[in-house]
């Protein structure tokens, strides 16, 4: 499906917001993603997975420049078109019976922005959001409590340190971010009996379960595909030591 670019601007250091027209042909659950074909030319050959940062008037992705493919994407202008496949995957399940705690790190904050909007505007319930970045230059949202590793903005330290005393059996955590952050958070949730849903970041080539490039080992020593069985999982499903 070809969608028109409404806006493609830098919102933080090496981080861009890509807004596309909403064709009103589908609904998007928080946590789902799209596979984006960056060029009609041979390179880059494979689509890139992008989580949904917002959906409503526009379909928005927030992406970081990490290679030649995303660098090319930054050159796309309003009025041009990109080809997208989606929405794909399994999103977050919203539970209104517990305190809701959103914990994100780096570009993993992006899908939590749409989750936060959905919780507050659609379900009409409150949630607490805690987002971590390396430094102030990398912050692309302040719609939450912010931590930076160097202390240049907000709490000084990693985001797990900021939230660890908030975890208990009555708090449901929604998390997305770097693997090391998620592993540390998972350990604490096990320790404090706090339920958690995690959105895993993974390289993938197809997004539809064919290539097997995004498999993750589960706690029962089986394998699941991040693209179709996830990207959102109950944290107890994951074999964290294998990541």
Secondary structure elements and pairings:
Elements: E1 2-12, E2 15-21, E3 33-37, E4 48-51, E5 54-55, E6 58-64, H1 68-73, E7 81-88, E8 99-105, H2 110-122, E9 128-133, E10 145-148, E11 155-156, H3 159-163, E12 171-176, H4 179-192, E13 196-199, E14 215-217, E15 223-225, E16 232-234
Parallel strand pairs: 8-9, 8-12, 9-10, 10-11, 12-13
Antiparallel strand pairs: 1-2, 1-7, 2-6, 3-4, 3-7, 5-6, 13-16, 14-15
Characterise this structure.
Keywords: 2Fe-2S, Electron transport, FAD, Flavoprotein, Iron, Iron-sulfur, Metal-binding, Transport. It comes from Hippea maritima (strain ATCC 700847 / DSM 10411 / MH2). With 243 residues, this protein is α/β, with parallel strands linked by helices. It has a domain of 87 residues: Beta Barrel (Elongation Factor Tu (Ef-tu), domain 3). The protein is 16% helix and 34% strand. The chain is built from four helices and 16 strands. A seven-stranded antiparallel β-sheet has the order 4-3-7-1-2-6-5. It has a seven-stranded mixed β-sheet with strand order 11-10-9-8-12-13-16, with helices on both faces. The chain is globular, with a radius of gyration of 17 Å.
State the gist of this model:
With 243 residues, the chain is α/β, with parallel strands linked by helices. The protein has four helices and 16 strands. The strands form three sheets. It has a seven-stranded antiparallel beta sheet. It has a seven-stranded mixed beta sheet with strand order 11-10-9-8-12-13-16, sandwiched between helices.
């Amino acid at each position: 499906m070809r969608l028109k670019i409404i806006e493609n601007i830098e919102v933080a250091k090496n981080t861009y917001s890509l807004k596309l027209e909403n064709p009103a042909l589908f609904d998007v659950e928080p946590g789902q993603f799209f596979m984006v074909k960056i060029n009609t030319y041979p390179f880059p050959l494979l689509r890139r997975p992008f989580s949904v940062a917002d959906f409503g008037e526009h379909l928005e992705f927030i992406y970081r420049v990490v290679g030649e493919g995303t660098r090319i994407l930054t050159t796309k202008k309003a009025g041009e078109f990109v080809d997208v496949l989606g929405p794909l995957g399994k999103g977050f399940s919203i539970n209104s019976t517990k305190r809701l705690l959103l914990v994100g790190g780096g570009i993993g904050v992006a899908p939590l922005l749409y989750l936060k909007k959905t919780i507050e505007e659609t379900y009409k319930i409150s949630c607490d959001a805690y987002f971590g970045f390396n430094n102030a230059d990398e912050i692309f949202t302040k719609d939450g409590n912010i931590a930076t590793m160097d202390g240049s903005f907000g709490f000084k330290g990693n985001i797990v340190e900021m939230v660890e005393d908030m975890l208990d059996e009555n708090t449901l955590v929604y998390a997305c971010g770097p693997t090391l952050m998620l592993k540390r958070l998972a350990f604490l949730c096990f320790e404090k009996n706090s339920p958690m849903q995690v959105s895993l970041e993974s390289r993938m080539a197809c997004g539809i379960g064919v290539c097997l490039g995004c498999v993750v080992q589960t706690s029962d020593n089986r394998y699941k595909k991040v693209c179709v069985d996830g990207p959102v999982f109950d944290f107890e499903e994951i074999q964290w030591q294998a990541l």
